[in-house]
């Protein structure tokens, strides 16, 4: 496998299938990773993320103005639960055991094993952030594991099952993404 | 099957798995249905929906302050494409062929065959609506097809395959939701 860049105009497709995500952030060397099920597309090249006030990662995002949205995979389900169950506020070594890597130009750790990673730059909207814990951000760079997303398309049918995206319900219940259906037409032209 | 109410506190679970949606709205007897892939959870009991300015349905929502988010199913994939491909602006009879029904107290048509329907009341945020086409709304009522969502949980494993949710990529490419995975713990306690 290789981790390859995703055209930013196509990066919305990484999130359009509605996966549960992980979010990472870093400020002055202090980094954290959280689980986030309430992250979606806010418009062309834009993300809307609900970040609760209790989240340590949110504090880092407020300081740095950047975060990375991960599209986690079946092989990472325990990791998604783990980063969602623990807070760095009370567990300073929370992320020390995670397999992290960095992409050039961005000082934000990314977790190995995800299907994709999207660097997002906050578009400040103080009222929405304060009143609704809702953060809007612009996608500025993205990469994918080319075994599962390449040339702007998800390739779940040919990818290992453990690379399917995960979709969280509640109480430890996940669903993986399932069968594909292709029509010869669609609202979009591509 | 019966269509049963969903506890509003659990209605977020209808959208948390990230399905592509349909949205309907009505104002003074004028109704429309659109496809919407950029609809997600904006917080507890809240929805964030991207509604492009070209959308006839958006105009109805701006006038009425209400819309219904549908969670469509595999059996409705052609319907999702159909309502996404056509605009009522140029096709006044667009929704005449759809199997519509109404729930008591709400003058908004709902499309039969979906897994769930969520009535949402717009929480006005003029700047976000104008600048980002982003609408925030409160979930005020919800129903589900009890064959596939009951007692606050998705039951895809026991439901007919055609009731699985749909997750759109682009160019006519959909994925249905797939296999379930249950852990005995999770970030949430329920």
From TrEMBL, chains A, B:
This protein's record includes keyword Flavoprotein: yes
InterPro entries for this protein: Flavin_Rdtase-like_dom, Flavoredoxin, Split_barrel_FMN-bd
Keywords carried by this UniProt record: Flavoprotein
GO molecular function, one term: oxidoreductase activity, acting on the CH-NH group of donors, NAD or NADP as acceptor
Listed cofactors: FMN
Keyword Signal attributed: no
Record Pfam families: Flavin_Reduct
Family: Belongs to the flavoredoxin family.
Protein name: NADH-FMN oxidoreductase RutF, flavin reductase (DIM6/NTAB) family
């Amino acid at each position: 496998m290789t981790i390859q860049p995703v055209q930013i105009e196509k990066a919305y497709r990484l999130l359009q299938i509605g996966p549960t995500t992980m979010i990472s952030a870093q400020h002055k060397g202090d980094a954290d990773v959280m689980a986030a099920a309430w992250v979606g597309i806010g418009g062309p090249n834009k993300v809307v993320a609900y970040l609760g006030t209790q989240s340590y990662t949110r504090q880092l995002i407020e300081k740095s103005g950047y975060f990375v949205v991960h599209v986690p995979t079946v092989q990472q389900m325990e990791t998604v639960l783990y980063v969602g169950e623990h807070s760095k506020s009370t567990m300073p070594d929370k992320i020390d055991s995670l397999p992290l890597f960095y992409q050039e130009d961005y000082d934000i750790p990314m977790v190995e094993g995800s299907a994709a990673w999207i660097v997002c730059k906050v578009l400040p909207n103080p009222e929405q952030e304060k009143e609704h814990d809702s953060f809007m951000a612009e996608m500025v760079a993205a990469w994918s594991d080319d075994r599962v997303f390449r040339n702007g398309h998800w390739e779940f049918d040919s990818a290992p099952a453990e690379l399917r995206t995960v979709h969280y319900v509640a109480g430890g219940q996940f669903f993986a993404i399932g069968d594909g259906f292709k029509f010869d037409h669609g609202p979009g032209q591509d």
